[in-house]
Amino acid sequence: MKIREIDLKRYRKGIIPVLILAGLVFWTAKICNLNFNHILSGFWKGFEFTLKMFPPDLSTLPELIEPALVTLSEALLGTVFGTLLSIPLAVLAASNTSSPWIRNLVRFFISLERALPEIIIALILVAAVGLGVLPGILSLTLGCLGMMGKLLADSIEEVDPSSLEAIQSVGARKAQVIYYGVIPNLIPKITSYALFRFEINVRLSLILGAVGAGGIGYNLVYAFNMIEYHKAMTAVILIALIVFGSERISFFLRNKIKMEASLK
Amino acid sequence: MKTGSWVLPSKRFKQRILWTFLCSMVLIGISFFIGFNPTSLFTDFHYVWEVIGEMLPPDFSGLWKSPAWIIAIGETISMAFLGTVIGSSLSLILAFLCAKNTMPFSWIRILVLSFLTSLRSIPTLTFLMIFVIAVGIGPFSGFLTLLIITLGTFARLFSETIENIDPKPSESIESVGAGNLQIIRFAILPEILPNFIANILFSFDVNIRTAIALGVLGGGGIGYQFDEAMRVLHYRQAMAVVFIIILLIIPMEKVSDYQRKKLLGPGLIS
Q1: N- to C-terminal Cα distance for chain A?
Q2: In the predicted model, is pLDDT for residue B269 greater than 50?
Q3: Is B41 helix (H, G, I), strand (E, B) or coil?
Q4: ipTM surpasses cut 0.85
Q5: Cβ B130–A50 below 8 Å, yes or no?
Q6: Mean pLDDT of the B241-264 span
Q7: Is the CB of A73 inside 8 Å of chain B's CB atoms?
Q8: Which residue in A has a C-alpha nearest to residue B45's C-alpha?
Q9: Range of the domain at B26
C-alpha cells in the first residue's frame, strides 16, 4: 500500500501539464471540427481508396518519365543556384566577416524569407511570370537561400579565429581572408548541406509542380482530378522511387564526406 | 625546375578547371532540357515587381469583415498542434517498436521500419490528394496528412535516439531484476525525454509550415484562404495573408529555437 502511494506521488507534478495539454487537444479538435472517432474511419477511408487505385496503369509510364526528369532537374538547378548565392549571403550575415548592421539586416531578410513557405512564393511567381519551370526554380532557389544562408552564416561564425588572424598577419586583405581562410573551412559543410537541401528540394518541387511550376507533381494532381486513379498510382510509385533514390544518394554522399572529414 | 612548376598551371588547377567545365556543361544541358532560360530572369522580372506592386498595400479588412480568416488561422494552428501531439505520441510508440535495443523480435522491427520508410518516400502530395478525395476538403484531411508526415519523420528519428543511448543504466537496472517494460520506463524514457520534447517543438515548427502548404493544396486553413485570394485576383488580400503567415511562423521558430537550445545545450542543434 505504501509503495503504491509513493509510486503515484512521483506523477503529481505532471497532472497540471497533462490536463492543460488534454484541454488544448480537445479545444483544437473542436476548431478543426474533428471528432476523435473520425480519425480511424478517416484513415480507413483513405486506405480503402488507396486499394481502389491498384493496380497501377504501367502503360502511362513513358509519358511520366519526362516530367519526372523535369522535377529532378528543377530540384538540382534550384539547389545549385541557391548554394552558389548563399555563400556570399552567408559571408555578409556572419559577425566575423561583416559589420554588425549589415549582418543584422541580412539576417533579418534571411529569416523573413524562411518564414515564407516555398509554395506561397511559387504561387506569387506563377501569378507573375506564368506557368513553367521558372517560378519553380526561383522559389526553390529562394528557399535554399533562406536555409543555407542561416546555416552557413552560423558555421562561418564558428570558424576558428586564429586561422583568420594568421592569414591577416601576413598582410591579406578582407577578400583574401574570406577566400583563403573561411571558404576552405566551409567546403565540407557546404557540400553536405547542399546534398541535404537537394533531398528537400526534390520533395518540394513535387509540391510546387502541383501549383503549376512544372514537373510530375502536376501530372499527379491532374490524374487525380481526371479520376484516372490507376495512372495516379503509377505516378505515385515513380515519385516514391525518385524520392527514395535521392534520399539514399544524398545520405551516402553525406556519410562519405563525414568520413573523409574525420580522417583528416 | 622551380620556375617550371611556377609557370605551368598546376595539376590541381587543371583538375579544377575540368570539373568546373563539366559541371557547368551538365547544368547548361539540364537547363536546355527543361527549357529554362536564365536570361528570362532579367527580361521577365518586371512582371514580378508589377504583381508585388499590385499587392501593396496589403488589405487586412478580411480580418474583421468576416470570421473566415480568424477561423482559418485557428484551423492552421490546431491542425499543426494536433498533428504534432498525436503524431509524436504515436511515433514514440513506433520508435520503441523499431529500435534494436527495445524490440527483441527482428521481424516486427523490419516490418515497422519498412512501413516508416515507405511513409517517408511517398510524397506528402499523394497523401493529401487521397485524403481530400476520401474525407473531403478541409482541415481534417490536412490533419490526417500531417499525422502521417510526423509519423514518418519522427518515428525514425526517435528510434535512432533510442538506439544511441548509453546502455549502462538499462543494464544496471536489469541486473537488479527489472523487466523489459520497467527498463523502458525507468532507464530509457528519462534519457530520451529532453530530446523527445525538443523534437516535438521542432516538429511543431515544421508542421505549421507544412500545414500552410497543405492548405494551399486543399487542406483548409490559412493557406486555403491565400489560394482563394490569389485565384480571384484579390492580390492585396493575398498580401495580407502573407503577412499573417510570416507573423505566425517567426514567433514559432524563435520559441522552438530557444527551447531547443535550453533543452539540448547550444552545440547539439544541427
Answers
A1: 61
A2: no
A3: helix
A4: no
A5: yes
A6: 82
A7: yes
A8: A129
A9: 2-42
